[in-house]
Design goal:
Low-confidence stretches: 205-238
Distance between the termini: 41 Å
Strand content: 5-15%
Order of helices and strands: HHHHEEEEEHEEEEH
Strand order of the largest sheet: 2-1-3-9-4-7
């Protein structure tokens, strides 16, 4: 577990404990103690956020995090530590929720990658041979056994097939396919063994549109390499305007 991750979770815990302790103190008729608890809950978030903003500024980025920093600092300076503690909890909690969401997304993509087939059962006359997926060509007749993942996009040549498409669509109910129906790589055979005619080469199959695959560059990998710098530049260009507007409205 990284230091930053531990710090994010620690800040959430500090904010929760500080808010709760301040609430108890206020209910017990100790307003000064309550303000102290709320202040102590806010200051660690201010320090951590200030460090993060300085680091981003040195790297040439300026994010809307500055608004949170200003709001918490102003709340403490104006004697409203409860408001500062609430903002601290909202900001720290948002960071943790974002981390959880990213981890789940990465886990789902990793699971899809792990499902990607490496071998296809190709029928040649009366014989069936196992061949690497990357060697499958359009028109090849492939056998998909029960419980196996469809290796490439293709059309059903058996009378019927039952396909679990949840890995691609999120729909948990298996889909019935008839002869000539289209099936996509990455989906699961949820019924009996059936045969397909490959409609695409392995390097252009449907699974590549959803997750990284060893046979082709993925859209996700390209987005990670090329999209992130673009998004950072956009955020850096619009954030000063947002910050100025927010401060002007507040005053």
């Amino acid at each position: 577990m990284s230091v930053e991750r531990v710090a994010r979770w620690a800040l959430v815990g500090i904010a929760i404990v500080g808010l709760a302790a301040g609430g108890v103190a206020s209910f017990a008729g100790r307003p000064e103690l309550a303000k102290l608890c709320w202040t102590l809950a806010t200051i660690p978030e201010i320090v951590g956020l200030a460090i993060s903003i300085v680091r981003d500024f040195v790297a040439g980025r300026l994010g809307v995090d500055a608004i949170a920093l200003i709001s918490m600092s102003a709340a403490i300076a104006l004697g409203q530590p409860l408001a500062g503690a609430v903002v601290a909890l909202m900001y720290a909690g948002g960071n943790v929720l974002e981390e959880i969401a990213v981890a789940r997304a990465e886990g789902s993509l990793r699971a899809l990658v792990d499902r990607a087939p490496r071998v296809a059962h190709r029928r040649i006359g009366e014989q069936v041979e196992d061949t690497p997926v990357e060697q499958v060509e359009v028109g090849d007749q492939l056998i998909v056994k029960a419980g196996e993942v469809v290796p490439v996009d293709g059309n059903v040549i058996s009378q019927s097939a039952t396909i679990d498409e949840s890995a691609l669509t999120g729909e948990p109910i298996p889909v019935a396919k008839t002869k000539g129906g289209r099936v996509f790589s990455g989906t699961l055979n949820a019924g009996a063994t059936f045969e397909i005619a490959a409609a695409r080469a392995a390097t252009s199959h449907q699974a590549d549109k959803c997750a990284p695959h060893p046979l082709a560059p993925s859209m996700i990998e390209r987005e990670g390499d090329q999209g992130a710098p673009v998004r950072a530049k956009v955020r850096a260009s619009v954030s000063p305007l947002r910050i100025t507007t927010a401060i002007t409205i507040a005053y």
